[in-house]
Amino acid sequence: MVSLSSQFPAAYSAAIDEAILRYNSANLQLHFTRVANDAASDLPVKYSADLGPGVLGQSGGFPSSAGNPAPGFTLVPNVINSTNTNYIGTIMAHEMGHCIGMRHTDYYNRQYSCGGGKSNEGASTVGAILIPGTPSLAEPNSWMLACVGSGVNRPFTANDLTALNYIY
Ligand SMILES: [Zn+2]
Could you give a GO molecular-function term held by this entry (predicted)? Predict the structure, then answer.
């Protein structure tokens, strides 16, 4: 159950519908449903006016040991600074990916998508498990690359779909 804070500009409503559609079109056993009320949601999308310079949003983390999704994520429209449905939908689908257990495909070298000066995440405390049938190195356009350029649309690639179908 996904909900969107009423504080978001109108473009975010179309974007969360797009993000949900991408997952639900992938024929997974996992199905997202949008609900109006945060109280009925286990994946709320929360609004923030400011999380610091250049910060687009904040992940809610990874799933619990019981298999429940991380409790949503936060986005900062003032920094995202766009009304592009596919771009915002790409950011949302990425954050939803974290909530259901996805690491960055370039976790071992964030420079791949973020450019110079960015550190590597390594396995971190939650691990980073290669999904059978997917490449061990990052590929262009994966929705789980660490960074995304302004306005870029990243619908699921064939390998993204392999990963999602393997887990869900
Ligand atoms: Zn991320």
Answer: metallopeptidase activity
Question: How many angstroms separate the alpha carbon of residue 143 from the centre of ligand 1?
Answer: 9
pLDDT of residue 26: 97
Distance between Cα 162 and ligand 1 center (Å): 19
| Mean pLDDT of all residues in 122-127 | 82
- 22 in Cβ contact with 153 (< 8 Å): no
Q: Which domains does the chain have, with CATH numbers?
A: 2-160 (3.40.390)
Ligand 1 centre from 105 Cα, in Å? Answer: 9
Q: Which residue shows structure tokens 């766009």?
A: 82
Residue linked to tokens 């973020």: 114
Name the residue type at position 16. Answer: I
**39 Cα: distance to centroid of ligand 1 (angstroms):** 25
Other CB atoms within 10 Å distance of the CB of residue 80: 19
Inform me whether the pLDDT recorded for 117 exceeds 80.
Answer: no
Q: What's the 159 CA to ligand 1 centre distance in angstroms?
A: 17
Check: CB of residue 45 under 8 Å from CB of residue 4: yes
CA of 135 from ligand 1 middle (Å) equals: 18
CA of 102 to the centre of ligand 1 (A): 9
pLDDT for the residue 127: 85
